[in-house]
Amino acid sequence: RLLQSWKEVTFPLEKLQKDKYLSYQLGIIPRENKIPLQEELEKQKEICYLDIIREEEGIAYFMLIFFKEYYLKIDSILQKLKVAKVQLKASPKEELKDIADKTNQTMERLNEIEKELEKISQEKTKLMSIYDHLQHLLKERKVSIRSRFTPYTFSVGGWIKKTDVDRLKEGLKSLPALEIVTRVPYKKE
Fold first, then answer.
1. How far apart (Å, rounded) are the C-alpha atoms in residues 15 and 9?
2. What angle do CA 7, 8, 11 make, to 5 degrees?
3. What is the model's pLDDT at position 109?
4. What is the pLDDT of residues 82-122, one digit of tens each?
5. What one-character-per-residue DSSP string does the chain give?
6. Beta bridge partners of 59
7. Please, which pLDDT band fits residue 143 given cuts at 50, 70 and 90?
8. Where do the coiled-coil regions begin and end (predicted)?
9. Rounded-to-integer distance, Cα 189 and Cα 170, Å
């Protein structure tokens, strides 16, 4: 927000920074001190130039250009009138553009991260489903193993041709609580 108040400064500040003889100071001063500042600097008009850039909400924004050799004299006037000094490396428009560019880059990176998070979230959901399925299978296996050791159950193992499985199931269909589990033999069986 502070830079917005300075965006009307179109002068390339970096040129003044490199100047051999001139310097500048951006500043903020309460509006009631604006007139005393102008009066003090009017007395020094051979060595400085004051430009009031903007006035808003009881504050005056200014740019002061002066000869470097008179820095201490100008600085004492600014301190006496309680000027808040502002330092900008480039023109405010350039700084605002840089900030906007950095903001856009940050937003793009944020969007990329959100997409990655969405993918990770989808993978997490899949992994949770697989985990639940495997837990269910593990519980069934534990139940199956425990049920073999009760006096009311028994297990019969053996080999049967794949073509005869349907006939076996049909033949044992009349027995109520019967479960037939088949599997393909392992390579070494």
1. 13
2. 100
3. 94
4. 888 877 766 667 777 777 888 899 999 999 999 999 999 88
5. -HHHHHTT--S-HHHHHH-SSEEEEEEEEEGGGHHHHHHHHHTTTTTEEEEEEEEETTEEEEEEEEEGGGHHHHHHHHHHTTPEEE--SS-HHHHHHHHHHHHHHHHHHHHHHHHHHHHHHHHHHHHHHHHHHHHHHHHHHHHHHHHTTSTT---------GGGHHHHHHHHTTSTT------PPPTT-
6. 30, 56
7. low
8. 93-130
9. 26
pLDDT tens digit string along 19-40?
Answer: 778 888 888 888 888 888 888 8
Name the one residue in this structure whose structure tokens are 């998070």: 117
Token digits of residue 109 = 């990176």
pTM: 0.45
Which tokens in the block code for residue 129? 């489903």
Give dist(CA 71, CA 76) in Å, integer: 9
Which amino acid makes up residue 36? P
Determine the topology of domain 2-90 in CATH: Alpha-Beta Plaits (3.30.70)
Q: Mean pLDDT throughout 150-159?
A: 68
Unique residue bearing structure tokens 């502070």: 2
Domain boundaries, the chain: 2-90, 91-147
